[in-house]
């Protein structure tokens, strides 16, 4: 992508925009665009990085999330009968500590066990 910003005499501007008519807010926009251009990421990469949060339908490492409960999620691998129960990172943007299964019933049982406390059956 070609740059849209430039620097002249220590002041940032946008190509094709008259600096004489730039107010403080517009100059702020030009500086933010400059910062974006310097990060080296294309718009899709940056959007994915900033907006990604674990949710139903998220694809992580070839697994699609189909259940979330508190700090855990369950996912199925695309086109296979492989399942995983992960712990969701505290920032909700990643996962760790996965237990993998080839049987959906075992996977869903484990998911329920880590999500709910079944020690007091009187509450059920």
Strand count, sense and closure of the main sheet?
5 strands, antiparallel
List segments where confidence is low: pLDDT < 50 over at least 5 consecutive residues. Answer: none
- Nearest-integer average pLDDT: 80
Strand tally: 7
Describe the structure.
The radius of gyration is 23 Å and the shape is elongated. By secondary structure, the protein is an alpha+beta fold. It has helices at residues 24-38, 43-51, 104-115; strands spanning 5-8, 11-14, 59-60, 63-69, 72-77, 83-88, 95-101. Helix content is 29%, strand content 29%. It contains 3 helices and 7 strands. Strands 3-4-5-6-7 form a 5-stranded antiparallel beta sheet, covered by helices on one side. It starts with a strand and ends in a 9-residue tail after the last helix.
Q: Main traits of this protein?
A:
124 residues, five-stranded antiparallel β-sheet, two-stranded antiparallel ribbon, 7 strands, single chain
């Amino acid at each position: 992508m070609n740059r849209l910003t430039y620097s002249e005499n220590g002041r940032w501007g946008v190509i094709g925009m008259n600096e004489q008519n730039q107010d403080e807010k517009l100059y702020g926009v030009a500086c933010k665009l400059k910062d974006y251009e310097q990060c080296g990421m294309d718009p899709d990469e940056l959007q994915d990085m900033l907006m990604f949060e674990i949710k139903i339908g998220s694809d992580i490492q070839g697994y699609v999330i189909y259940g979330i409960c508190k700090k855990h999620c369950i996912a199925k691998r695309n086109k296979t009968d492989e399942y995983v129960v992960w712990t969701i990172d505290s920032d909700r943007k990643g996962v760790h500590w996965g237990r993998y299964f080839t049987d959906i019933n075992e996977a869903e049982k484990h998911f329920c066990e880590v999500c709910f406390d079944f020690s007091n059956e009187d509450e059920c």
